[in-house]
Structures are given as C-alpha cells and as structure tokens.
Amino acid sequence: MKSRIIVHIDMDCFFAQVEERESPQFKGKPVVVGADPNGGKGRGVVSTANYEARKYGIHSALPISKAYALCPEAIFLPPNFELYSRTSERIMQIIRNVIQLYSPDHRTILNMEQMSLDEAYIDITENLWYLFFTIVKNRYQREKWEKAQEIAEHMRAEILRQEKLACSCGIGPNKMIAKIACEKAKPNGVLTVRPAEAEKFVEPLDIEKMPGIGKKTAEILKGSGVRIVKDLKSRSEHDLQNLFGSRAKEMYRRSYGVDNNAVESIREVKSIGKEITFENDTRDPELLIRTFQDLAREVAKEAVEQDCSWKTVTVVCRFSGFETHTKAKSVQKPTKDWTAFRAEGMKLFLRFIMEKQKSIRLIGIRAKIADSSRL
DNA sequence: ATTGAAGTACACG
DNA sequence: CTAACGCGTGTACTTCAAT
Fold first, then answer.
1. Which chain C positions have some atom within 7 A of a protein CB?
2. CB of A119 within 7 Å of some strand B atom
3. Is the CB of A329 within 7 Å of strand B?
4. What is the pLDDT of residue A128?
5. Which residue has the higher pLDDT, A240 or A231?
6. What residues of A act catalytically?
7. Distance A330 CA to B4 C1' (A)
8. What pLDDT shows up at residue A353?
9. Residues A15-46: pLDDT tens digits?
10. How far apart are CA A87 and CA A166, in angstroms?
11. Of A335, A249, A264, A265, the residue nearest A300 (C-alpha)
12. Which nucleotides of B are covered by protein (CB under 7 A)?
C-alpha cells in the first residue's frame, strides 16, 4: 500500500568498461584500472577490474602489486577521471530523462541520489502512484512493481544505446534491498525484490553483504557465531546492543529487510581534503614541506571555488608501518581566511615532524566545512 | 548536563 | 617470506575541557 519503490542503478565495472569502449582492442582481455603496478613494486590499489581480470582473482581495492603478481599480462591502465566524469554526467542525464517519461501531467518527479560516478538511487514511488487511480486497486500492488522493472529496463536500454555501456539495476522497497538486488543482478541484469520477499531475500546472505557491515564488524559477528543475516535474528537485541551500542537497532531492523533511510537528492559538502602517498617513505624536509604546501593550496583552491568557510583543519600523517595519526585545530567562527587555513595546517604538520622520527608514507590535509557556508 | 574539540576507527566506491 | 593495502568522503565513538 504505502511501500516505497526504490531503484538502485550501478554501472558494471565502470572504469574498465569505459576503457574497453574507448579501446575495442582490449575486448576479451583482462583490464585493470588503478595505480601503476611499476613492475610489481607499485604501492596503490586496483580501482576496477573487468570480468576477464576477475577470473584471476583481481578485484577492487586489491593492492596493485598483488594484482600484478596474479596476472602480469593484464592490461594495466591509470584512471582517466576526466573521461569517467564526463561519461557519468551523460549517464545521469539519461536516467533523469527516462524518469521524466514516467512523470504524469508533464510534471517532473525526480528523487535521485547520486552516490558516486557510477551509482545512484531513485525513489520512483511518486512516479508510479498515478497507477493507483488508473488501475483497479488490487492490481495496483502487482502492476507497480512490473512498471518499476519496465522503467529500469528502459534506463538500461537507453544507457546501452547512447553510451554503449552495460549496467545493472536492483528494485526493492528500500535502499538496502535495491542495492543488494543490484549486486545479485550483475552483470548486465535486473532483479526485483518485492516487499513480501524482502525478509527471506536477506536471510541467507553473508553478513558482510549488508551495507554498513564491513570487515571489522563482520569479524566481531562471526566470532559470536553470526555468519549469515538469519543468524543475526537469533541473537537478542540486548545482546547486539552490548556489542554494537547504538548501531544495534539499525542492524536488527536491517536483518528483517527493513531500511527506512530516505533517498536524499541534495547532500551538501561537509569536508574537502587531499592526501598523497609517497613512492618511497621519506623524511626529506624539502620534499615533505613542498608537498604539504601543494596539497594545502589545492584544498584551499577547491574550497574558494565552492565559496566555503572552514571550521576545522585536520592534518593526517601515515608513517612507515602504516601507523596513522591526525591532528586538528578549529577556529571559533567559520572563516574564509584560507591563508590562515594553510598556516594552521602547516603548524600541525611541523608538530608531526618534530614529535616522530619515523619516515613518512602519506600526508594529507582536510578542511571541515562550516554549515550553510555554501551559497 | 551539554557542547565542542581532538583523536581514532570503520565503511564505501 | 600471511603481506601486499590509494584517495576522498562520511559517520560514530571516546576522552577531555569549558560552559
């Protein structure tokens, strides 16, 4: 009756697929987009691997050195964000255009939340509500899900036709179900999970498939005998409260396939930062200070362009051995004084250099943006 | 008691 | 030789001090 209809759309191995489109000679070969493997010595990670590369065990976030070890013959490419960004904008516009076709009375109903270059949620509840008036009520329940599937297929067809790129869609009564359904539909597929099926749909999933449950949380859960979502339900809520505090309630809801988070079309920027990993750990003061200043300047430039004020500057420093620390300094009132931002950042950074003698792997600087400072 | 600052940990694409 | 491990962003927790 009042259940929402959420679509999750996600391009299939986006970066790699775009590269294949641009260079058809790559078709059928393993393609890995990410850091420079540098003959096996590279320090970065894989951004995206196509399905050929995945056969070798290569996947997103895998250290590039490991990827190189698994398949040195693969085509390794640096990310071309300009290209992906332009492509992404066109794809998002295609999605908006298709949604408009399903808005009654020439009035565009668009509730879309872009999560990244290649991923978005769309709440099409309102777009389908007119069916309630045009169709006998008991058919409305059934037909709105069929219509949702039609919309998703329409979007996929247009993206394939106009951009020659494949994607997958998940359709469900909330974001979590839509997202997991999309994952199951991959590659190049659509999967609808209706409200009545949602609970059974999540029950057999490994807990780390649940959004918000990563490696660490999954480890804790497995330690207490919870391997799949169904196991979660057999624990008392008090039990989970003990382990996860305020997160327990949400986890419990989700284990029943329930997720009340809204699709939020407008999300304001809360922080802007830059960081960089050195090719080799270093203590060279010239290099460190010059690099830090460059990062600080870039952050300030970006913030000025967006007409932001800053409230807090945070400096991050990762030493050899992956030991990572942060230092932060806040100002009383949000300010657009970005010279002060760079000066305060530098003070914090110099404290790191003085306090620790280890060589440095990564440095970074981030500005926490004050509320409502964007115009 | 509440709020803000500083620092850490975790998650995700 | 079970370690390899970017970047940008968001959230939540803990601890401590000031209001």
1. 3-14
2. yes
3. yes
4. 87
5. A231
6. 119
7. 10
8. 95
9. 999 999 999 999 999 999 999 999 999 999 99
10. 13
11. A335
12. 4-13
A45, closest nucleotide (Cα–C1'): C6
Evaluate whether A309 touches A368 at the Cβ level (below 8 Å).
Answer: no
Each residue of A148-181: pLDDT tens digit?
999 999 999 999 999 999 999 999 999 999 999 9
Whether the link from the prior residue into A187 is cis, omega within 30° of 0, is: yes
User: What one-character-per-residue DSSP string does A98-127 give?
Assistant: HHHHT-GGG-----EEEEETTEEEEE-HHH
Confidence of residue A105 (pLDDT cuts 50, 70, 90): confident
Q: Which two tokens stand for residue A118?
A: 């290649």
Give kind and range of the element (H or E) at residue A167: strand A167-172
- In angstroms, the CA A115 to CA A113 distance is 6
Task: Specify whether the CB–CB gap between A258 and A250 falls below 8 A.
Answer: no
Counting every residue written for chain A, the total comes to 375
- Report the pLDDT value the prediction gives residue A374, as an integer from 0 to 100: 46
Structure tokens given for A158: 């247009």
Asked whether strand C has any atom less than 7 Å from the CB of A49, the reply is no
pTM of the model: 0.94
Buried b (16+ CB within 10 A) or exposed e, A327-357: beeebeebeeebeebbebbbebbeebbeeee
Nucleotide nearest to A217 (CA to C1'): B10
Residue nearest to nucleotide C7 (CA to C1'): A275
Most confidently modeled range among A100-109, A231-240, A260-269, A291-300: A291-300
Number of Cβ within 10 Å of residue A228's Cβ equals 16
